[in-house]
Amino acid sequence: MRKFNLLVLNEWLKISKKRSNIIPYVILLVLSLAVGYMTRTFAADMYASAADFTADSLQPRGIGQLLAILVIVGTAGIVSREYSQGTIKFLLIRARSRTAILASKYVTVLLYTLSMQVVATVGLFLSGAVFFGLSGGEAGIGEILTSLLYSTVYCTVYATIGFMLGILTKSTGVTIGATIFATTIDKLVISREFYKYVLFPNLNLAAYKDGGAPMQGMTLTFSIILLCIYMTLFLLAGFAVFRRRDVA
Amino acid sequence: MNSTAHNVQEPSGPAQEQTVLEMQGVSKLIKGKAIVDNLSFKIHKGEIVGLLGPNGAGKTTTIRMMTGLIRMSGGDVLIHGHSIRKEFKQAISQIGAIIENPEFYPHMTGYDNLLQYLRMSDGAGVSRIKEVVELVGLQEAMNKKVRAYSLGMRQRLGIAQALLHSPKLLILDEPTNGLDPAGIREMRDYMRRIAEVEGIAILISSHMLAEIEQICHRAVVIQNGKLVTVTQLTEVPEARSEVALTIRVDKLEAARTVAGALQGVKVTGADEAHFELHVQLPDGAVPELVAALSEAKVGIYRITENRQSLEEDFLKWTGGNRIA
Ligand SMILES: Nc1ncnc2c1ncn2[C@@H]1O[C@H](COP(=O)(O)OP(=O)(O)OP(=O)(O)O)[C@@H](O)[C@H]1O
Ligand SMILES: [Mg+2]
């Protein structure tokens, strides 16, 4: 386990030692303030408190999509850049299995996703506190955590798609492009029976709040099972290819 | 002085020679073409072996298979008896390698890069970084970003990286590429030292034949992925009975007569323009020939040995400049 933690530390350092690593966090904070300010200016009575504001804005319909894009941009290169830089050679001639190395990269992607979520939540809450005040409103810590959970699920699925694409294509650019494109079309609804088995309508679990559903005949359990199946497939494909591939 | 001491032979021979690397009929097929074809050879403890071949011979492909970066289509590679296919971790932990250009994380310092590899190896402590960095002479550059390194500096960092976990086998693909003459010399001295003192086996692939000739004990020559020959490079004095000499003299005809009259000496030619006589004779007969020439009042200006260089051998083996 210690060995694995050291692998994760390595991956985390590779990301965080980049000087540009601070930028997405700054963007999140600035954006939180901007959203708070605009809402306050144009729809002053929309939220009664910081908790209301945070719980609502954090969802995939709120800043969730941007959060997903930032996560993708931050982690898309975690595998592909090793290939393009040529560092993959030194990485793979160590007494560590390819599975362990790739798993440490995936854990790092998850940690990165989580860190972005936390910063976004804190940023939104601060912004909410400034523009809407702390007292009043209906939402509490429970609502904020629920929103955080929905947002994390949404971003994690996209991070996993990016992770797989990075392995399959070995191209950071293609990975970022394809995954961001997916985030822009995932809110489309095609009213056909088959569409509920597609990944996209199942991504936003927040849609089930207050008894709603993205499409007729879909339930929260259905979506969760489907997301699990998709994630498993993505990861299996990524690990299978990475373990077997010739590094030339 | 005790002259008998010279006659004591170093204990050597198959019994003492520990095999560090064993290639067992290794092949690599890509799209039906054999890039490496049924390659077998061994490297023993403390031995420095050159891997030679023209461009595209399959040297890098061979090294990639030894280090598990690519799968082999057939055969196996054993490192200290561990198969790189079936016991990857045990096998690879004995190997330190540079494969083609050494590439590091450019946004991190040399020290941070080495720390990355230290965290992935078992047993070595942080103090080991200081040791290897001193060995390759990079102390000054440790806190610089690798982005700012020259090729030679990256090559040195590559060697530091390869030695970090104290491997038993060092595999170096074009290690002197980018090094300055002083760096090449340092590297050579260092390779010899670790081979002799620590018993590390070293495999070096290179185009610089002079380089290989100076440092390696043996050379494995491949072409089109096939083994061409394995040749001994370090001389065993007794083994070289016949020598070929060029002697520059003042009286060429007289010299030719004197040399021709001596037993065992063959005159192979003469160069009138340069007053040079070419002879072939047993090593032991050289003083005799020199004495005979002096006696006949033939003045000697130069005696040079005509040795076929590895380069000539190499061109002979591989048939000149054809690239596969
Ligand atoms: N992935 C690949 N697909 C197809 N052919 C390949 C591949 N990798 C190598 N080759 C071919 O295999 C042959 C050997 O390549 P390799 O890089 O091993 O040669 P080398 O001996 O290292 O040459 P050099 O001295 O130029 O470094 C070349 O003809 C090359 O074109
Ligand atoms: Mg090569």
Automatic annotation (TrEMBL), chain A:
Highest taxon in the source lineage: Bacteria
Pfam families per the UniProt record, alphabetical: ABC2_membrane_4
Keywords, ordered alphabetically: Membrane, Transmembrane, Transmembrane helix
Transmembrane segments: 21-43, 63-84, 105-132, 172-190, 220-242
Residues making up the signal peptide according to the UniProt record: none
Name the UniProt record assigns to this protein: ABC-2 type transport system permease protein
Species, as recorded: Paenibacillus silagei
UniProtKB/TrEMBL annotation, chain B:
PROSITE patterns: ABC_TRANSPORTER_1, ABC_TRANSPORTER_2
Keywords from the UniProt entry: ATP-binding, Nucleotide-binding, Transport
SMART domains: AAA
Key word Nucleotide-binding present: yes
GO molecular function: ATP binding
Gene3D superfamilies with a match to the protein in the record: P-loop containing nucleotide triphosphate hydrolases
ABC transporter domain: residues covered: 21-249
Family annotation (Pfam families): ABC_tran (PF00005)
Family to which the UniProt record says this protein belongs: Belongs to the ABC transporter superfamily.
PANTHER family reported for this sequence: ABC TRANSPORTER, ATP-BINDING PROTEIN (PTHR43335:SF4)
Protein name as it appears in the record: ABC-2 type transport system ATP-binding protein
